[in-house]
Amino acid sequence: MKKKRFRFQWGAFLLLIFYGGLFFLLFTRMVTLQATGEVEGQELAARAAAKYSKESAITANRGKIYDTNGQVIAEDTLSYRLIAIVNDKATTDAKKPRHVVDAEKTAKILADNIPMDEEKIYKQLTRLNNDGEKPYQVEFGSAGRGISHETMSKIKAEKLPGVLFVNDLKRYYPNGIFASHLVGFALKEENKDGTFTTKGKMGLEYTYNKELTGKDGKVEYETDAFSYLLPNSEKMITPAKNGEDIYLTLDKTIQSFLEEAMTQVEQEYNSESMTAVVADPKTGKILAMSQRPTFNPDTREGDNMKWLNEAIEETIEPGSTMKTFTLASAIDTGVWDPNERYPSGTYRVFGEPIRDHNNGIGWGMIPYLEGFQRSSNTSMAHLLKKIGNDVFFDYLDRFGFGKKTGIDLPNEASGTLLSKYPVERVTTTFGQGSTVTPIQLIQAMTAIANDGKMMQPYVIDRIVDSSTEKTIQNHEPVEKGQPISADTAKQVKEILASTLTAEYGTAEDFILDEYEVAGKTGTAQIPLGNGRYSWGSNEFLYSFLGMAPVDNPQLIMYVSVKRPKLKGELGSVPVSKVFNPVMLNSLKYLNVNPEDVQHVDNATIQDYTGQSAEAIQVELANDGLQPVIVGGGGKIIDQYPKGPQKLVNGNIVFLKTEGDVTLPNFTDWSLRNVLVFKSMANLEIEVVGEGFVASQSVSAGTVISDSSPIVVKLKTPSESFNKDVEAPSEDEIEQIDNE
């Protein structure tokens, strides 16, 4: 047998070396990766997390804006964003296209439903990127955002391929034109990362944007390569923090009265502009504020409009409304004698004529009281000589003119008091030359209405954490000093009231049937520049600064109408058509007793905490009050109003006890009373409408033991005014000295 000869196989040897080397390198690499967890200086775990870890945003709601009674003025609401898929790569089945197939048809249908021209929509649907390729999807700017459910449904019904909707949040203003320049508006803006944030652009929405803006949350989780949630993967949730809620001093009902009256006068007289403010003189709270022209904050539509709050940011020459404070200065310094006579007609300051409004003819030698009632300019000039220049301007400073009131609104103007030249000092006494703001007139008038105490105006009642309902900021009334004595204030009110009722009074258009009004008209020339002024019946700023009722003013109001197209009547007529219905309806809404029943019997309540509700119920009823037990009876644990204090007979007193609540008969209750009961009873009561209760969904006498909602419907105030006597606010009650 022949022995085989060994032959060395170089090919096999080289293959062994090659593959062995590869295996060695692979093994070394695996060991290195296991040991270090890095590749090319990068953490593999981090790269895996970046690829498979997902994050989803939780959108935070912007804070709400409420009126003083908790009625919504601005809030976020569900809306939709329109998206069109335009790239045919999105379609995998030609029978079921997922992109826009017919751009012309799609543009036509969309143009019928969103505020964008058909041509612009078509260009957006057919546009190309810089590289000449179609984008995957397109949007339509502001026209494609904030779409309502109704519009979305109409577009969906057309079954347009490639047209999609994404849930979105929209800032919503449910009252339409409603203190628009005060509240302002907010819009969604696109961020650099492609996300959208609602940002305030004007008014309170802008000023308090930081407080109203929430902080988005997020959900983090892990998926596999196909985006399926991995087993046992943990979700990490960072909750969204909603924005803070802002409660205003505005009263929705009074604001609605004002908006309606101003709209009617604007349409009837086609005025260039109008401004109005309603305030509580005892606290400085602004209850209503508006201007014309105005806009709808949902659409931002408005014609010939200034994008500023004229009551705060714009100065005016106030005209004869300024005589109110010249009169107050004269009375307070002791130089006022209503029966003293002076020569009316024309007064000269170093040759410069100061004329009365009847072309300087005047009415001969007349008493100062008659001069004020006639709104005589020369009477003010003669009074200035008696008061003294320095003393007079010191009083104007005390009243807050020439400086900001400090109201919690932005861009407040301060106005300018001219006193360099003698003629400027004289014209300032009757409101010409020097400038003020409407809000300064309101602040100064609080001193006349409030026994000499001047209150700072404010519009923010409180700011509340929307999650915890904890009050973060609480604004309280601020007294700005006492520019005049209580006796002076009383005399000024009486004289202002006489301008409506006296034979020579200029304010008879402002007489109300049921309440006694005090106030001063104004007819101011409008400056044209270079010392020139406009002239003519349609070329003035007509105004009225008034209060009611005279004995105990509950409301003060300023109204101005610039360049109305008069129809032969006095300029005070369009002003009165705003002032009169708003003042009358507001006083009735607040249940302020008319003049003929002002002197009514009072009853004194005490602190009844810990006493028997049933016994106190009998005692209060005997005193002419209306006790309402909130709970099952027994010991009283809380009450509203608090004692001790005096209440007008007929007022409701709420006595809270433990136990289930028995529902009272809400018929003819005011909104405020319903809200007080709701708060004390901690019940789910849904209020529909305004004014006074007309019906309730759950019968009176029902014991409420669960959280089922109760619907209470209210009539408009004009239908129900004389029905209800409501629980007073703290500003409407007379405090009793404990001593």
From TrEMBL:
Q: Where is this region: Disordered?
A: 720-739
Biased region (Acidic residues) positions are: 727-739
**Residue limits of the PASTA domain?**
656-716
Entry keywords, A to Z: Membrane
So, what pathway does this thing act in? Cell wall biogenesis; peptidoglycan biosynthesis
What subcellular compartments does it reside in?
A: Membrane
Q: Which InterPro entries does this one have?
A: Beta-lactam/transpept, Beta-lactam/transpept-like, PASTA_dom, PBP_dimer, PBP_dimer_sf, PCN-bd_Tpept
Say which enzyme class the record assigns: hydrolase
Is Membrane found in the keyword set? yes
- Domain of life of the native organism: Bacteria
The reply on keyword Nucleotide-binding is no
Indicate the principal place this protein occupies in or around the cell.
Answer: membrane
Q: State the reactions this protein catalyses.
A: Preferential cleavage: (Ac)2-L-Lys-D-Ala-|-D-Ala. Also transpeptidation of peptidyl-alanyl moieties that are N-acyl substituents of D-alanine
Enzyme Commission (EC) number: 3.4.16.4
Task: Give the protein family.
Answer: Belongs to the transpeptidase family.
Q: What is this protein's record name?
A: serine-type D-Ala-D-Ala carboxypeptidase
Q: What organism does the record attribute this protein to?
A: Lysinibacillus agricola
